[in-house]
Design brief:
With about 130 residues, chain A is α+β, with helices and mostly antiparallel strands. In chain A, about 20% of the residues lie in helices and about 35% in strands. Chain A contains 4 helices and 9 strands. Chain A is globular. Chain B has 8 helices and 20 strands. Classes of the chains: A alpha+beta (about 130), B alpha+beta (about 350). At the A-B interface, strand 4 and strand 6 of A face loops of B.
């Protein structure tokens, strides 16, 4: 069973969001997502400064066999990307909720956060899939 | 969905199963990267029982094959196999095949799973010599064991009996399970290794014995995912990608086996291609920029599109993106700077010598 920490929020697309203060959303893919993808060999990162609406493609994670798009879980501007992933994409596999974070968004509307799933709802979603 | 005789073993190993040409097969057991590395450095074992086996025997068998393949049948002898293809009249490839010669007018063909029916129909349609053509695919399993420790593991299970001394593309029929089993020193990974053809009924025992015997030597079961990354690094053709009904073997860079003096199907086109008339050629391209190329990516030299990737992906050995490109002939010599279009962005690349990974004897 994959790990689903209680203190962060999720999307149905298997992304996670950890709020750092009121406006900074740290984003990555879930443990379940990295288990499904297996060996991640490349992460295409966005450029800092670009604004995305919720649901737009921000990044791409590629395993040997699969290509998986990462969508903006909330609307916002990219303020930082995890450049460590350029040389060590496998961090997404080994530490998806920690060193494997992918990008940080400056959130436009705190209201959008309410649409994200909590750990129990995400666990139910994974179970149902 | 077709299942191989080893299907239960894959489930026991928690393999991730996929549909491949109508067969449910393991794409990986634990990790494509680990299975790839095990095969390159120790050994990997693959269930490829989905592949087809066709006997062409009896009076007229050799004559029939002389008509069907562009490779001289004088090159194969009893106890030897050779790689070749069935060509159509346009020089395209009906299928790429291995022909093992058991004896005079006694041949054993190994063909692709998805094309077995098509191959049988093609062979039978051209059989005007009266040769016996028999599909033995469902009675035959196929287990490949590949890598630097493969020899040691196979000898542990089957005894030597000549196996250790087999030269590349030579084979033996050894007693096994009360019958006989073909053991060939060949494979599809770029590593030294063996292809074993047990009767379906004996394949589970053979698989389990090999897995057990290889455990302390680092042998890993490997799925179709690793099989594909291994063969891509070795630049081996995959039917439907580098070769097809519309791509000649000369264009695909395997024209070395076009050498028959017989009146085989497709000869005019292939001889023309060999003497410089092929419009396209297969080239090897590696990414110098960041990214993972995939099948179908377009390749550019400056503003000009020169071709399309027929197979591409991440090379676990080279740790970079690589691809085989069916390109306009002469458009890019090794060393040429190129660009590959990935999701609408152009990524720097260069043409390199074939193959990416040289056969490791």
């Amino acid at each position: 069973m994959s790990q689903i920490p209680d203190d962060i929020r999720y999307t149905k697309d298997h992304e996670w969001v950890r709020m750092d203060g009121d406006f900074i959303a740290v984003c990555g893919i879930t443990d379940h997502a990295q288990e499904m993808l297996t060996d991640i060999v490349f992460v295409e990162l966005p450029e800092a400064g670009i604004e995305f609406s919720r649901g737009e493609r921000v990044a791409t994670v590629e395993s040997v066999k699969a290509v998986s798009n990462i969508y903006a879980p909330v609307s916002g501007k990219v303020i930082e990307v995890n450049t460590a992933l350029e040389n060590a994409p496998e961090l997404v596999n080994s530490d998806p909720y920690g060193e494997g974070w992918i990008f940080k968004l400056e959130v436009k509307s705190a209201l959008e956060l309410e649409s994200l799933l909590d750990a129990a709802a995400y666990a139910a979603h994974v179970e149902a899939e | 969905m077709n299942l191989t005789p080893l299907h239960e073993e894959h489930l026991k190993l928690n393999a991730r199963m996929v549909d491949f040409a109508g067969w449910e097969l393991p794409v990986m057991y634990t990790s494509i990267l680990d299975e790839h590395a095990a095969t390159r450095t120790k050994a990997g074992i693959f269930d490829v029982s989905h592949m087809g086996e066709i006997l062409v025997r009896g009076r007229g068998a050799e004559r029939l094959l002389r008509r069907l393949v562009p490779t001289s049948m004088d090159r194969v002898r009893p106890g030897r196999g050779m790689y070749t293809c069935l060509c159509n009249e346009r020089g395209g490839v009906v299928d790429d095949i291995f022909i093992f010669m058991k004896g005079a007018d006694d041949y054993y063909l190994v063909v692709n799973a998805a094309t077995t029916g098509k191959d049988l129909a093609w062979i039978r349609a051209h059989n005007d010599t009266g040769a016996l053509v028999e599909d033995v695919s469902s009675a035959t399993a196929k287990i490949d064991i590949q890598g630097p420790r493969a020899r040691e593991i196979v000898v542990r299970v089957l005894g030597d009996g000549g196996i250790a001394g087999l030269e590349r593309f030579h084979f033996l029929d050894i007693p096994y399970g009360g019958g006989s089993m073909m053991v060939s020193q060949s494979g599809y990974t770029g590593e030294h290794g063996y292809e074993l053809f047990p009767a379906a009924a004996h394949s589970v025992r053979l698989w389990c014995d090999l897995v057990e015997a290889g455990r302390d030597l680092g042998l890993k079961p490997a799925g179709l995912g690793a099989r594909d990354t291994l063969r891509l690094e070795a630049a081996y053709s995959l039917y439907g990608h580098e070769i097809s009904d519309d791509i000649s073997p000369v264009e695909a860079g395997i024209g070395w086996f076009v050498n028959s003096a017989d009146g085989y199907i497709g000869r005019d086109v292939l001889v023309g291609h060999k003497s410089g008339g092929a419009p396209r050629e297969l080239i090897c391209v590696e990414l110098t920029g960041r990214g993972v190329p995939r099948d179908g990516c377009e390749v550019y030299a400056g503003d000009a599109k020169i071709g399309v990737m027929t197979s591409a992906g991440y090379s676990p050995t080279l740790k970079k993106g690589i691809g085989l490109v069916l390109a306009r002939r002469g458009a890019a010599a090794p060393g040429s700077q190129l660009q590959v279009s990935i999701r609408g962005s152009l990524v720097d690349a260069r043409a390199v010598q074939r193959p990416f990974y040289r056969y490791h004897a």
